[in-house]
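Run log, item B.
One chain of 407 residues. Sequence copied directly from the ordering sheet:
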Amino acid sequence: MNSFILPLIILLPAVLAAVTLIIPARVKGAKEALAIIGVTVNLIIAACLYGKVIEFTMPLCGFGIDFALRVYHFSAFIILAASGFSFLTVLYSTVFMKGKAMSRQFFAYLLFTVALVNGAVLANNLVVLLFFWEGLLVTMFAMIMTGGGSAYKTSVKMLILVGLSDLCMMLGIGMTGYIAGTLEIDKISSLPLTSWGIFAFVLLMIGAVTKAGSMPFHTWIPDAATDAPLPFMAFLPAALEKLLGIYFLARICLDLFDFKPGTSMSYLLMILGSATILFAVMMALIQKDYKRLLSYHAVSQVGYMILGIGTALPVGIVGGLFHMINHAMYKSCLFYTGGAVERQAGTTDLKKLGGLGRRMPVTFTCFVITAAAISGVPPLYGFFSKELIFDGALESGTVFYIVAALG
């Protein structure tokens, strides 16, 4: 397969996003059509990449900074999953965003986000990765702004919190490149977690877990649930950010550094994961708004993923990655059902909702299935991913198992 397919999967959504922005608003249906074409072709290309190993390199600016892209089995899986969620979100948004004031901008920013996510996952150079990673900060800001009203305050809050973590990641990339002597990701392997290596690991970890929505950089997510368009919540915080953040955390732990069970960095991740599980789910229990409840619960579920990877045990890592894709599926579906309820009832205030099961049987069925999955009810997929994480936590320490079970 031609290596030019790698930059194509980045360029295509970006070009269509630019066209969506400049096309006249009076051309009805154009923005929806362009968005559907973009994510459909993107999904087809992602399916073609699945299981392939392809590299693309183009000189950029010297100093070891090349525009290097690489797809292999793990990144191909993440690209395919992200493309699938993007496709479903666009289909959902064509109805949900109909008649909204800034729907054209929303579809354009969504396509830009797809391009940036593809670039971040495929990047084989740490500086190139950072470019796409920072680009997502801009599109997130813009997508929240399309909610209007008080969305500006939430956008600024997100920009500050995520921007600070991205600054940490920037420093971590510089240190990692210096220690390894290269910026090419596939050439960096098992860096020792001693002195400066620990510092670099922690800085990169901050960037990864913040993108995934972990504590303590999570507080903008519940606000966005109220202020941003609902498809944004199903698309970014619930799905793509979890995929991207946990993907990068896994690459840090499995590929870049010598990450082993029982080390200080392993315990650091497990403690962070455990704290995120408990504190976020406690906040979810007291929420009165459906969307804010889901957003806090999404933060809590990130804790399970971090805890699983933090064990540094095969069973825990597999469980964390399995839970990553499971969570993206059922949390997106729960937000979709929330949007359907909001459109039907005009509110997501739990005190004002009830008796919708007979009026919305399809939505009700989807909600029950995904709620059972997220609760770990067998034989649904949420049970198996949590069971693997529990096994890894139990091997790492009884206290971590107890926290996971309490969560």
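Observations after the first pass:
- The first strand starts at residue 54 and ends at 62.
- The chain has a mean pLDDT of 84.
Flagged for discussion on Thursday.
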